[in-house]
# Entry
Amino acid sequence: MTGKTSIKIDYSRCGDEVGVDPRSCGKCLRACDPAIFLLHETLGAVEENPFDPQKWRITPLWPDLCFRCMKCVESCPERAVSVRWKPAGGN
Amino acid sequence: MCDLCMKHGAGGKWYLNAEHYSNRIAERYNLRDFLLEQYKNFEQISIRKFRGFNAVGLGYKLRMPIIGRIVKHTAEKLLHSTNPPTNPFRPEGHIGQVVPLEDAVAILETCAAEPIIEKNCMCRYMSRGIKEACCINFGVMSEIVDKLPRFIPEKDKYHLTRRQAVERFTEHNKKGYIGSIWFGPFPYINNLCSCASPECAGIRPRLDYGIKSIYKSEYIVDPDPDKCTGCRACVSVCQFKAIGYDHALKRITLDYKKCFGCGVCRHACKQEALFLKPRDEVHGLGKNY
Ligand code: SF4
Ligand code: SF4
# Structure
């Protein structure tokens, strides 16, 4: 893919505060053919209680490998994922 | 022989050197605490900062000419480190190699330290949210997984005998998963995985970014053109896209540079046209690990 892809997850829609646990949803994780997302516990939560972490989230780890197929956006029931890109050479 | 065998194989393959599996090594490097700390926080390794940056969006940095080379060098130095491990939040001395079924069986039968368990693959969990039991662990590592409920399979058997471990590994291999054996951290071997690309965090750096995070196996496939009927059953099985098809000859073709020698294509071939050969013996590939 030429240009730069920017993938964002809105944690006010996918996260602890609104009662969404990405571990039980995980639809974007499975929709993405190149598997660019990472499911992990937040750094702060581990410091609080490493054995029973509640605060998990998804981070787009490898945006450069994204196909721009938009399957993640379509799969998300919370409308929390957005994918945007700039064409190569654009500024 | 790859670098790892030359340096740590005691005359043979590094992963068939039983010394590396011993509890004694784990104790000497105090790996009980280290591994517990590391696996407690396993999914976070990529988001923790090291030398000023973490792995989020690192792919773009890797594509930049000078910075890319520095990042690659730093990552390889860390993965290939043979110093006593100090920081559980980094993948220090975490280097592995692809192994075909036969060598994996030899590991399980003769080297693996007990207890032997099968845990959920952490790569598939962190990249797909899927819990699939297919990662075989040994010795001290097995005891550590006891403390980490998210890695303990709910349906499948957790504690395995050697025989059961061989059966499970064979099942995964026949399904098309790539066998891989890992130092984690050097010099302790405790993980025999059944991997899938692109989910595998060990294979991705090598395939997508050219970072030597895993070595090709000690073997390579050598197709027998007289036996191949051109049915193409093996083509889609190869996760390294090493098998092509020659329309004129109506036979498969092998890209020798791409083949990692995992041997899983053999299970798909009904004609027994695919064989593994020692990598060293294939002309021009002697050092291509
Ligand atoms: S747009 Fe497609 S390739 Fe890109 S992150 Fe979403 S699902 Fe993955
Ligand atoms: S061609 Fe090589 S890499 Fe591909 S499945 Fe066969 S042995 Fe593995």
